[in-house]
Amino acid sequence: MSAVLHPGGHAHDGHGHDDHHDHHAPHGWRRWVFATNHKDIGTLYLLFAFAMLMIGGILALLIRLELFQPGLQYVNPELFNSFTTMHGLIMVFGAIMPAFVGFANWMLPLQIGASDMAFARMNNFSFWLMIPAAIMLVASFFMPGGAPAAGWTLYAPLTLQMGPSMDAGIFAMHILGASSIMGSINIIVTILNMRAPGMTLMKMPMFAWTWLITAYLLIAVMPVLAGAITMTLTDRHFGTTFFNPAGGGDPILYQHVFWFFGHPEVYIMILPAFGIVSQIVPAFARKKLFGYASMVYATASIAILSFIVWAHHMYTTGMPLTGQLFFMYATMLISVPTGVKIFNWVATMWKGSMTFETPMLWAVGFIFVFTMGGFTGLILSMAPIDQQLHDTYYVVAHFHYVLVAGSLFAMFAGVYYWGPKWTGVMYSETRGKIHFWASMFFFNLTFFPMHFLGLAGMPRRYADYPLQFTDFNMVASIAGLGFGLCQVYFFLFVVVPMMRGQGEKAPQKPWEAAEGLEWEVPSPAPFHTFENPPKLDATATRVIG
C-alpha cells in the first residue's frame, strides 16, 4: 500500500536519508500490471481479497435477507442455494486464501531478510490468474440456469445435474488452484533458500514458520481438489461414472476425495492466522513468545494430523462404526496441538506488561472467539452428537466462529500491526477501536444464536423455516448487516486514509517491543529492501551495524 503513497517509489525514513536505489521503481499502470516487487504484489492480493470479501458479504446479506422471516420472500430455493454456494466459494477461495498470500508476499521477504520472493515473474502470474477465475465465478449468476447451487462443497449428484455455470465454476477452481500451487512453491523456495545468513529455521519468526507449513499443505491438497472436480467434469460431459451409481460409481466417493482436500484446507486458512497472532501477542505483552519450539512443533503436528481426520464431515453417510471411531479419536487428537498454541499465547500474556492498542485487541479477541469455535468443533467431532447436529445451523455457527473470528480477525490484527510499515502512516487508534468493538459485538450477535437454532434442529441451506425459529433469525440478519457495515467502515475510514498517507507519520518501529527484521527498515518500507543480506545479531531479530 506504500505504492499508492509514493508513485515514484521514494521512501524517507524520517532521518533525512533518501533511499537512492528506489529510482528503478516503475511508474503508472505498468507498475501494477507488470509488478514483480513483492510489496506491490502483496498490495494487489490484499485489495483483490477485500473486493471479494465485499462480494461474498453481499451474498451473505442476501441469504440473511431471505431468512429474516419464515416463508419465501425474495428468492426461490434454487437461487437461495446459488447464494449459499457462491458465498462459500468466493469467501474461501477469493477472500481468505488470497488475503493470507498478500500477507505472505508483503511480510516474508521483510521478515527473513530477503530482497524479494524467489520467483518474481511467477509471483505476478499467480496473482493475475485469479482475476479471470474471480470474474468467471461472479459471472456464473448470469449464465443459463444460473450459478451452481450444489453447496460450496460441490457434492455429486447435484453437480452432475447443474447447468453450464458448473463448468465455469470448475474451470475457475482449477485456475485458482494453479495460482495457489505457484504461490506455495514461491513461498517455500523463498523461505528455504533466501534467509539472511545467521537466520536458522528455528530463529525464524512464527509467521514465516506457519506459512512454510501452510505452503506444503497447499501443494499436497490442491491437486486432490483438482482431481475431484475433474472427475465431476468427466462425469458431466465424457460419459464416465465416477459418482454415478447407475454406472457403478459412488457419490460418497466424491465426499471422501473432496474432504481429503477440504480438511487440510481448513488449516490452510487458519495456520497463517496463528502466525500473525504469534507475532502480535509478544509485542504487546512485552515478553518473548512462550514456548517457541513447541509452537513450531504444534503447527507441524496440526498439518500432519489434518490428513487423517477428513471423514468427520461424513459421519452420516453410513460409515462403519470402526471408521467413525477412528475419525472421532483422530479429530479429538488434533485439538491437542491447537490447545498448545492457545496455552502458549495465554502464557505469553501472563504477567506481561500488556497494552491494548488495536492490533492487540484483535489478537486477544481472536484468541477468545476462536477458542469458542474450537470447542464447538470438539463437540462436532463426536460422532453420536454430530449425527444430530449434522447440516444444522450449529455447524454454520461453528465454522463461522473459526473462519470469521479466526482467519478474518487475525487478518485485521495484521493490517493494524503492519499497516504503518506498509504505508508510512499510523492508523487512527479511535477508529481502529470502533472497528474492533463494533465487529466483535455484531459478529457474536450474528452467529451465536445460530448455535441455538442448530440445537433446535434448523437445517442449513434451506430458504424457509418453521415459525419458532423467527426471533433468532431476525437477530442474526440485523446483526449480519451491522457486521458488514463495520467492514465498509474499516475500508473507508481506516484503510483508505492510510493508503492516502493521511495520519501521523509512522516511526520505523511503531511498537516498542516488536521484534523482527521488518522493523529494521524505514516506514514506509522502501521499494527495494535488503539488496545485500543483512548481518544479524545472535537472536536473528536485529540488524548489526
TrEMBL record:
It is a multi-pass membrane protein. It is found in: Cell membrane; Membrane. Pathway: Energy metabolism; oxidative phosphorylation. Residues 10-22 have a biased composition (Basic and acidic residues). GO terms for cellular component: plasma membrane; respiratory chain complex IV. It catalyses: 4 Fe(II)-[cytochrome c] + O2 + 8 H(+)(in) = 4 Fe(III)-[cytochrome c] + 2 H2O + 4 H(+)(out). Keywords: Cell membrane, Copper, Electron transport, Heme, Iron, Membrane, Metal-binding, Respiratory chain, Translocase, Transmembrane, Transmembrane helix, Transport. Its main location: membrane. It is an enzyme of class 7 (translocase). The chain crosses the membrane at residues 44-65, 85-106, 127-150, 170-194, 206-233, 253-277, 289-313, 325-347, 359-379, 399-418, 434-454, 474-496. GO terms for biological process: electron transport coupled proton transport; oxidative phosphorylation; respiratory electron transport chain. Residues 1-22 are annotated as: Disordered. GO terms for molecular function: cytochrome-c oxidase activity; heme binding; metal ion binding. Its EC number is 7.1.1.9. Residues 23-537 form the Cytochrome oxidase subunit I profile domain. The keyword Transmembrane applies. Cytochrome c oxidase is the component of the respiratory chain that catalyzes the reduction of oxygen to water. Subunits 1-3 form the functional core of the enzyme complex. CO I is the catalytic subunit of the enzyme. Electrons originating in cytochrome c are transferred via the copper A center of subunit 2 and heme A of subunit 1 to the bimetallic center formed by heme A3 and copper B. Belongs to the heme-copper respiratory oxidase family. This is Cytochrome c oxidase subunit 1. It comes from Sphaerotilus mobilis.
